[in-house]
Specification:
By secondary structure, this protein is α/β, with parallel strands linked by helices. The chain has eleven helices and eleven strands. 32% of the residues lie in helices and 14% in strands. The strands form two sheets. The protein has a six-stranded parallel beta sheet, with helices on both faces.
Length: 314
């Protein structure tokens, strides 16, 4: 079985022994749109994290039998075309939950404690100049006693809720915007208005694109934080910068942008205020998460070769 990885760089040099044991493996570190066909020739199995595989590409790859998405989201693969052409598609879910939860709280605790500002001051010699044993230049606030609102009550939202409760926070789960409130949920606007911390864990779709705009940010407490480790585009980026500049909210932690890598003109990438922590889409990517991901991809290929259904989307 000929197996080709199109963007191995996203796997961070993780061992591929489990995959190479299943067939003849060809590895490309990166694949541009212009290189997709050339890099995919003779492949029976394609592994892609973010490389786009569209209908036109599929129709030209006569040997292709299986597309393994080395991620949870599959918006880079035309699933309808795959179904029409009889090409199986798999993904991997749940592998990065511990990593995303940890990074979510890394952003929260750094913002609440102003760790990044204290670190910068220490590097510039401020502690050495202090007239007492500590410095209290910036606020340091507890998670305990705070209200944390979850937007997106799936696996990640539940995992974040569990850790938040261990910190002593009160957790509420926001209902979908504009819908009747289910038992155990909090109406969307009420959640926005009452939360001390909002953590976003919903998918990006037509319903959630620009879910949080300046209108919603103005509903938030001026002391509140908002965290997005889900998908870029859920929070309107220009509106978030406006809210941060005007101190409409206290701060934001963002790991995802509408277009990645960040464009030179992206408003969040160009914002330099201390009330924003921006990280380059790393929440999913702990070493352990990527090891789990590669193992799951190998198991998906092995199952397919045995005519078994595992993590199949098509």
């Amino acid at each position: 079985m000929n197996i080709t990885i199109l963007d191995n760089a996203t796997l961070a040099n993780t061992s591929l022994d489990g995959i190479s044991a299943l067939g003849d493996l060809t590895v490309h570190q990166l694949t541009s749109p212009e290189q997709v066909l050339a890099h995919s020739q003779n492949a029976e199995v394609l592994i892609t994290n973010k490389v786009v595989i569209n209908r036109d590409t599929m129709t030209q790859l006569k040997s292709l039998k299986l597309i393994c998405v080395s991620a949870t989201g599959t918006n880079n693969v035309d699933l309808d075309a795959a179904k029409d052409l009889g090409i199986a598609v798999t993904n991997v879910a749940g592998y990065s939950t511990p990593s995303v939860v940890q990074h979510t709280f890394s952003l929260i605790t750094n913002l609440l404690g102003n760790t990044h500002r204290y670190q910068a001051d220490c590097q510039q010699g401020a502690w050495q100049k202090s007239d007492m044993f500590c410095r209290l230049d910036y606020s340091f606030n507890d998670i305990q006693g705070k209200t944390l609102a979850i937007i997106g009550g799936g696996t990640l939202g539940k995992a974040v809720s569990k850790v938040a409760e261990a910190f002593g926070a009160e957790v509420i789960v926001a209902e979908r915007k504009g819908t009747a409130c289910r038992n155990g949920r909090t109406p969307f606007e009420t959640a926005i208005k009452t939360a001390d911390i909002i953590s976003v864990h919903c998918p990006l779709n037509d319903e959630t694109r620009d879910l949080i705009t300046l209108n919603e940010l103005k509903m938030m407490k001026p002391t509140a934080l908002i965290i997005n480790t889900a998908r870029g585009g859920i929070i309107n980026e220009a509106d978030l910068v406006e809210a941060l500049k005007a101190n409409i909210i206290a701060g934001a932690g963002v790991d995802v942008l509408t277009k990645e890598p960040a464009e030179l003109t992206n408003p969040l990438a160009n914002y330099t205020g201390d009330n924003l922590l921006l990280t380059p889409h790393i929440a999913w990517a702990s070493t352990e998460s990527i090891v789990r991901l590669v193992k799951e991809v190998s198991l998906n290929i092995a199952a397919f070769s045995q005519q078994e259904t595992r993590n199949r989307l098509v």
